[in-house]
Amino acid sequence: MQEHEQLSQKQINDDLLRDVLTVPKWWLPAVTVLGIIVITGLGSFSYMVYHGLGVTGLNRPVMWGFFIANFVFWIGISHAGIMISAILRLTQAEWRRPITRAAEVMTVFSLMAALHTPLIHVGRPWRVLYWIFPYDFDRGIWPNIRSPFVWDPAAVGTYLIASSLFVMVCLLPDIAILRDRSKNSLVKKIYAFMCLGFRGTPRQWKLQTVAGILLSALVLPVFVSVHSIVSWDFAVLIGVEGWHSTIFAPYFIIGAIHSGVSAVAMLMALAVWLYKLDKYIKPDHFDAIARLLIVVATTWFFFFFLEWVYALYTLEAPEIALRELQAFQQPYAPLFALFIVLSFLIPVPIWLFKRFRRSALVMFWTTVLVNIGMWLERFLIVIPGLIRRTHMTFDWGTYHPSIIEILIVVETFAFVALGMLIFAKVLPLIPLFDVKEGMVFRHVIKVGRKTIPASIREGLPHHYYEKNH
Amino acid sequence: MATDAAKAEQYEVVEQPYAETDNSVETRKAVSDKLLGIHNITSNRFWQFAVLTGIMFVFGIIGLAMRLNSGFDDKGAWGYYVAVFSFLMTTTAAAPMVAIAPRIANAHWRRPISRAAEIWTLAGCLNLILYIPLIWLLPSLENGRRSLWFFGQQESKGDFWTGFESVPAYSPHIWATLSIVALILLGLTLVWLSCLPDFAVLREQGEGWRKKWGKRLALGWVGSTAQWNWQHHRMGIVSALYFMMLVFSHFFISVEFLMVHVPGWIDSLYPITHAHNALQAGVATVMLTIFCLRQFGGFRDYIGLDQMWALGKLMLALSLLWVWFWFSSFNLYWYGKKPSEISVLELLIKGPYREIFIAEFLLVFIIPWFTMIWNPIRRSIWGPTLIAVSILCGTLLDRIRLYVGAWDVAGRDFASMYQMKLSEVPVKIPTPDVADIFLIVGFIGGSIFLFMMATRLLPAINVWEQKELLLYKAEIQYHRTKVTVLGKSR
Amino acid sequence: MAKRSVLGLYTEEDSAADALDNLREAGFEEGEYEILTGTPYPEGTFGEAEPQHHLFRWPLIGAACGFTGGLIITAGTQLAYPLITGGKPILSIPPMAIIMYEGTMLGAIIFTILGIIFESRLPRIFMGAYSEKITEGHIGVTVTTEEDRTGDAEDALKKAGAEDDIIRGWE
Known about the structure:
- The complex is a heterotrimer.
- Chain A is 71% helix and 3% strand.
- Chain A is mainly α.
- Chain A has a single domain (9-443), classed as Up-down Bundle (Formate dehydrogenase/DMSO reductase fold).
- The longest helix of chain A is centred in the middle third of the chain and has 34 residues, at 148-181.
- The two termini of chain A are 34 Å apart.
- The relative contact order of chain A is 0.16.
- In chain B, 67% of the residues lie in helices and 3% in strands.
- Chain C has helices at residues 13-25, 57-80, 93-119, 150-159; strands at residues 3-10, 33-36, 139-146, 167-170.
- Chain C has a 4-stranded antiparallel β-sheet with strand order 2-3-1-4, with helices on one face.
- By secondary structure, chain C is an alpha+beta fold.
- The mean pLDDT of chain C is 90.
- Chains in contact: A-B, A-C, B-C.
- Strand 1 of chain A pairs parallel with strand 1 (18-19) of chain B, so a sheet runs across the interface.
């Protein structure tokens, strides 16, 4: 990171807490608009509850449509938070500091959006409650643990709890700052309660560091397992063409990282523009995330290529027919072309140029394109396979999403945006202590006429080296 | 500008502290002298081990001759041969990734170990020798056998195939040869680029034959800014190409030399699994190598806990990824219950190779994972080394299980290439004969022999990278404690 | 006797380190004084002892609990009402492994969080001597001791250059 200003702790507090302790002008209108969209979505859901699932475009054999594609999409977005936070923490990448919390919070809200989508999709979600409480033992059966639909809540629930706890623990020092800065006594008391009395002793700071690393190491396997399990909702089935492919687990995960990291880049650009955080999120940060995206996008494309090659390698006519449907037949061919172009062919060549990588505007729009493309990818995985699910041609179907489905899907986007805005109003989206730590640890080394940015590296305690020499 | 100045005044900007590095001429010379001093010494123990591995290599050549003599008709007889080829591709060809990936990430811990990782590509030349007979063994596309090069698959008709009817029957052979040759050439280019500045050091400060060869290979290197920039950029490009070619080679080998021979084995994840196994084994290979360099090579002051710890963390992550890849394939086959897939599970996991699979599972996942999660083991010299041995043994068993199993069924009546399913699973594992044992022992020994001989000319620790570290590393007093400050090189 | 705490505020790291030296010379023990900072510093910056913790036990205990819970849920529920579904055995290892794995990780993570809170000596109901300036960049040195020794503590803090008002509090 060549561009850097060493700011004082007070300055950092002022900048990063400004929009928590006061209300920016644009905030209320934005929350109002998003709130209206969410309410419209919930209203559509109410309409669907009253009239039944028939108001959607779902019908035999396409029993999964927009809702499930959306579910997979949001699970995917949720992966970036932990990916950015955990992997960059473990590799001690300095550029992660301003973006980890926004990514983690996006994970939490994305997971909530992902979880409420299948609940809406089941049509009568309240049955979950009176089916569980009290449990009907007279049926003589417990939930079927052999079903991927039981693995799903186990995994997604674990991930949601883990991510939420991760965010909360890492928030403690920043809530302590809010406690100290708040003027309103009630607000002060609330923050004081939330931070559990954090004071900033060496023990507490050491545990924050250890916690960050340990929780990262624990959450990463969960992150890998969640989308694998979601992918197995499709992949374990042999009855639907295009689904029974062993590569689905890593393919979904790399796709999730691709869309999720793109979403983080979008958030970074929005943070710079809306919250005026250009002193903290620099072009260097956009450059770093863009380079990560190039690697991720290329890997994703390789996995996509493998998935297609193996589908054709099977020499099975139904499988090949599905691929023809996806790639060459209406109405999916234009969507397929659009997905490839938006997910890879436009963004990646743009990201190869440094001046575009360093531009918040270019990064914002290219990552928007990526996410549109990746939503289409999930759509193209779910629906075309179901259209020809059976081998009897008279059972082949079509799928046209209804306005109800579209409104509910849009509601999920508004829900996540609204959640993040409300969070940013109550708690800081950029981790203050992490940024301050970066300032404290930062040094410079002079090599001839050049100044090299450097950082203190805390390795193992000295006794390890003495014992193992 | 006035606005910027006004803005700057509003911000409480604090001065960044400077750290002084010890980058004097004397220090740099001391590093050179010390490393060259170690490089110039060849101990008796070194020669004893070289003779031993050389003898093993001779046995390997004898085994190769015996195997060639047995002819190409019985594919089952070549199972162990292909397993050895795959094992060497998995270990020696993937070892340079330990140099490539941390170099791209600018991780300073890689400096003492990157050269050792790169030198393993020289042992990759053995892969080429082993590959040549396989060209005759690989079936052509003439009879419509299943291949990645699906253009040649005449059986599946439809609009999609129009225009793809005439395809060279030997497409797989061409691509396989190109990929292996390209991988080796890229590896050799990488090691030469990395050694250029050190060849110049040998040219100036070496003695005897090392001085002569240093002069030939340094090609006029003088250390100008332009040359350093050129070297840095070329290494970046060659590294990226090497990685892509490595993945492609493993993609190719895992299909054309493995999956194709077992009807019904269609595993889209397997190329990635195969490449990942290679990364894991490559890291283990480098771990074992640097342990030997540290304990027996005199490099105790350079190869230490930081390197072992970093590689240990990598091995931990890669072991977990191993089980994830394996489970992803296994779960789908087990759950779907497609007869073709159940037969594959029967052949490779539940049937005659069950014990080998269990042993491999223990060696590659259970032991590494459940030991390396303990900090004291991961943060030690011996811990990661022993785990590396476990991983290498497990990988060898894995290759034997897969390739011997696949080539055993290849060419048998019940496993015709046109069938979609393996209708019968062999009950016994083919026993290795004398030629097979010679091949396994000989070519593993041969790779080690080549590595050892290469280190007589190529310094086993990268001298220029060690000197470069002096520019970016400072040990400073930070109030009441000593800390290390590390800069980013580019 | 009730314990009292006193807090001295410093703007320079070296002054805070000097304060710790003065406190040691005055006979205060390691557990009686603490540094308070608004940002993490490299370990040992102020000459303080390395904090010892046993955090790593918590995820192990949690993982064991989660694993056991997962095993009971999966094996127990299937054995309670054995019904073959999808042609798979009653005790199907791969699905059980998935749920047991998630249980293990959930247990490990929840216990890790509890461990972090516990090892950080939180929640802390009474803040004791504390200043809001700490989160603004000041460095605090707080001493918790018997009331009759607070004078010595204040002298040690002032000698190192603490800001004028020493803050006092109750524990």
